[in-house]
Structures are given as C-alpha cells and as structure tokens.
C-alpha cells in the first residue's frame, strides 16, 4: 500500500477468511495481548490457531477458514430447513439457518503510515458484530442496516511493528425484521486514512435554499476535526464543479481549528442558470473541499449534490422544482436471487434500472436505511427515495442509528422524505408519540430541509401520534377509505400512500395452488389488508392529496411467504420476482406509469386439455383502444380504461392470441402469446455483453427454455447446468419460484415457468467469459462476454 495523497479511502473487501460457527473469546482480554484468535502477534500463519486454543482454552479442534471477498451473506449459502431450533425462521431468514460466523483479515502497513488517522468503516453487518484489532476489543454494533466506523490509529502496527489482524464476530441468531435479513458482512468495508487535521466523515452538509432555473444558492457547512495537540490556522477552499466536470465557483475561508476538537465552517455560493435535478434529468454537481495548513493541502473531500427544491401540499401532493409530480413508488427489501443481501453494486443498479423501466420514479427502502451505493445510483439515474429508519426507538442506540443515517444521506438529491418508523406496535399511543417526537426533532435538527413521516397501519388520529411528523403515511389506507376520510376531517394534513396493494401473485401461474404455494396472476388470493394495483393506483389519481403510492413491493423477497408457509420460502408481493422477471402486474404499472405506447396480455397460451373452454384474457395498455385477435380472427376492440384493465372471455384454442394497441386509429403497440411446443433449446439473454474487470461487476443472464420455433415454453421446468470459463465466475442462480428449495449458490437451476437467472461476476483480470448452459434433451446455449 502507498499513501501519497491527503486522504485515502480504499475498499477493504478482499482477502478475508470466514469461519461459520461459534468460537469462544475470553472476556478478560488485556489490551495489546499478542497471540490468540483476536491477534496474530509474532506467531506464524498456520500456528496461531493451535496456540490460541491451547493457551486460551478455546478448544483444540483446528478450524477451517474459507477465503472470500466481501460483500458476503452466509445465510444464502445454507440449506432450507423448517426448524427454528437451527435458527431458521420464515420471515427473517426465509427458512435458512442464521447462526454465528467469524471474519478475519490480516494486513500490513508501512512505517510511514504511523502518525496518520486510520479508520475502518463497515457499511452494514447483518447481526450483532464485535470487532477486535490486534487483540484490542474495538467495538460492538447492534443494527444491521446502518454503517459504523472505528478509529484504529492507536492500535494498528506500522512497519516493523508487525502485521495487523482484524477479527469480526457476527451473531445473527436474533432478528431485527420480519423479512429476510441475511447474515454477515454483507456491505462494503473501507479502510480510510487522513491527516490528523481533516474533514469529518459525512462532514459536509449541502443545501440549496434557492433553486430555480435562473439561480441557485448553495449553502455548504463543512466540519473539520483537528486531532493535533495544538490549535491551527487553516484555510478551506471549496470548489464547485458542474456535471461536465467544469469548475463553476470556488471560495476560500480562513478558520482557527481548535486543538483536539471540531470546527464548523459555512460558505454560500451562487450558481447562475443551474441545471435542476429531477428523475428525468438527474443532473449532479460536485463540491470539492480542500483543507490547507501552512500552504500545504492536508485533506481533499468530495461531495456529490444536486440542485432542486421539494414541497408537499395538503391538497395537491408533491412538487419537485415547483412542478407537480405524482410519486410512483415501490417499497423494496434489499435481497436478490443468487446473492441474498450481498449485492455487488452492479446488481443494485440492475434492480433500480428494472424499476425505472417499469415507470417508477420513487423507491422506499423498506424498512431500514439502504446501502450507500443505492443512493449514489438513485442520484445518478433519477429515482426519488423515501429513506427509512429501522425502528421507533429513541434509546441511545436507536438515536445513534437514526443520526448516522441522516448524516450519511442528507446530501443526496434523491432523498426527499425521512421515514422514521413502519407499523410499530406503539403507533397511536402516548409513549409512541413521545418516542416519535424525539426521532422527528433529532431529524429536523440535523436536516430541516426534508419532511419526516411515519408509515402507519393503525393509530392515526390518536394521542397526537402522527402530528409529530410532517407527513402521515398510510399503509393500506384504501381499507374503508380511511385515508380519504381523514383528508376530509384533517384537510391540512400532508399524506402519502406509504404502502399500497400487497398483491400476492406468482410469476407465470394462473391458478392458486396452496400445496405448492403459488398464487394466481389473476389476483384471486390476496391478503385481507391488500388490494389489487388497480385500486391502489386509481385511489391515487382520483385524490391528488394522497401524494403518491409506494407499491408493496417492486421485487419478491425471501421470507414472509404470505399467504402460505413452508414449503413456500419467499414472498409473492413483487411486481417482479426475486430474479427481476416481470409478473403481469409489472405491465399494469408500466401502462399507468409510462407514456410510451405498450400493450400486455395474460395468461400465456399453453392450455392443453382446455380446448373449447372459456379463458379470461386480460390486457393492460396505455393506448386508446385495444383489439384482441385469436388466430387471425378479431375478438373485438375495447376502449382502454386508464386505471383499469380490459377483459375478454375467450374460448380457448391453441395458436396465437394477439393484442393490438392503437392511438388515433394507428397501431402503436402489439404483443402476442403463442402456444409453444415441447422444450427443445436453451437461450441466453445477457443484460450486457461487457463487464468491467474489477472482480465485482456482475452481469445478469436471463435463461429461457424455448420450443423448436423459438417460443418460450411458459410451463417448462427443465434443469439447466451452467459452465463458466475464463475471466469470470458464476456468482449465483435463481428462478423466482417461491417454493424452490434449490440452492442459489450452485451450478444448476431449474427454469420456473420457462425462465431462470444466472449471475456472472467478472474477475479482476480482463479477458473473455464463456457462459454455457446445458440440459439433458435440450440444445445447449453459449454466450461470450467480454471483461474489459
Ligand atoms: C405491511 C408491512 C410490510 C409487509 C407487508 C405485507 O404491513 O409493513 O413489511 O409485511 O405488510 O403485506
């Protein structure tokens, strides 16, 4: 490692060892103790474990450590079991065991690294974690959804002092939520080095008190920390760059940085004719804070920001840059097929892109703060965010988690609402209102520019609970039209559809099947509190005071297999399945959320044995009229209902059923379902053809089973084997089947209703990656990806 610049922040994800299981660590560890599992001291690799166990009474067996890179989720590597005693729960683990695991990493620092500030940042560890460095107990963290950092400067070894060992115990036996939470160090880890005089991490706060297309005022607070034992006169130069990388303003301010303390500096900039940030035009600026002492640069800290204004109105909803904008949102948990919660950045982006293609302009990170990169991507691609605190909790740890979230996220233009809690038991109670007020005040103190909210499912209008936040969230407000009735009674209240629909459907399934755990895409098995997307959306468009919807959910997730239990292991609420394959309801959202003409019909057209029977064909479209054609014969034309769907009763015959969408009498969109023959071949549809050779970039490859004519066989369930050769590896597989117990970390996967997914991860060395998919009785498929 070389340390030449003022600040070095480097990924610390590589070369970790992992042990799945518990290891007893003696409590009375003296500071600086050498040897033992928390340290490596002068003991040679390979010997240290034996000595540690014999000397410290930790057992004699030689443990086997696996080598891996972060992010990592050990939960997804387990086998499904229906056994709570093994730590397997339906919700938090999706019937996969949790447990305890240890991570360990050894590294060296050069002698000249001494005298600098060194810290390690964990962006998220699922479970309660304990960190030791070189035998020193550094800290414990409860709360798997927000990052934490430790200053390691004193306990690290530099140059000849020896190697460093960082040991992390993760206890994931308890759970924080009722959805799949994963286990382990599932987000990035960073090692950061600065001068003793530096900008504090998340130490800039950039607001735009004025933001019009004529002019913007950019207000920047910068916190600096001086860890020298003498006070210093410093200068802070802040430069602002536009999206093209051109410097548009720069200003310096002098300050006196008190010794061993923090100093806050304030600067105001005027930007003429700024380009405003919005989902359609996600234009970003960058502030570079350069800290100088004695004419030399001691720190350089970058903050990306956007110029935009937000406003909420009790009658008309949300305004972005003074333009009304309906919030078209989805709620999402963070897991994905093949990886559990350990998503490479590129998969986070893939998920967000799929949501954007559906027409969504907003994302609710249910029910916790998202990974930091998710917000960077939302800023960049244009996606509004309801950023969420994990719990109604004003204990020291609860407040600390909230503060860390707001300090971390308050410069993101995408973030428009701080959501402080979701469906807590204490909603509507006196105690609940007190706790919520503390959270709301804490939030406003750190960021007064965004409204606070609570996503409630009961207790509205009781004990002043929802009055302590700015926006009242209605989870399933459609029930008895309680949101509409509340608007009449409390006309000044800001409202939002914080959670809507909960429509349980299984991709490609058209009949409820309680034994196998499938719900029909016709929506015939939805929970009592849920409704179909049509109702959720039409309530919104007919009542602009509802501000927007957050559909539960964009993607299926592991756990919460409502309305079923085992053998079902994941949820059915998604507009897409766990692989991001669209369900029919995805196309409904696309029809009402997007303007580009589209038409979609359901079901598929493979119903052997149903010849002569009636089948309901539904069509979603945003055109003016749709005509349905069966084997060349018109079944009639219907005018499109802008918030509903069209329906035909069709006497089934195999062949082709086609929907034609027209505007002004012209065909602008069409889609057909064709009766497919027997499975004959595999086809691969990579999302991209080239990856970045960074050891992380992941290309999702969609895999379909086709008949001889090239039509997807919508009932196929063939098992596919993947062979990946060259500069990449198979990171995981999935198929969206909510009852599949096949492992996601495997080389084989069945297609489910015609489709499965393979995740191909680029290696750090450039080259080509050959992905081959084979299956008994089917023609194989191959695709060559480049890794540049
Ligand atoms: C809500 C809850 C979500 C999820 C959903 C299922 O009540 O906030 O986390 O459980 O119901 O419909």
UniProtKB/TrEMBL annotation:
InterPro entries: Beta-gal/glucu_dom_sf (IPR036156), DUF4982 (IPR032311), GalA-like (IPR048230), Galactose-bd-like_sf (IPR008979), GH (IPR017853), GH2_Domain-Containing (IPR051913), Glyco_hydro2_dom5 (IPR040605), Glyco_hydro_2 (IPR006101). Residues 315-390, 399-476 form the Glycoside hydrolase family 2 catalytic domain. It comes from the Bacteria. GO terms for biological process: carbohydrate metabolic process. Keywords: Glycosidase, Hydrolase. Residues 99-191 form the Glycosyl hydrolases family 2 sugar binding domain. Residues 612-669 form the DUF4982 domain. NCBIfam families: GalA. This is Glycoside hydrolase family 2. It comes from Paenibacillus wynnii.
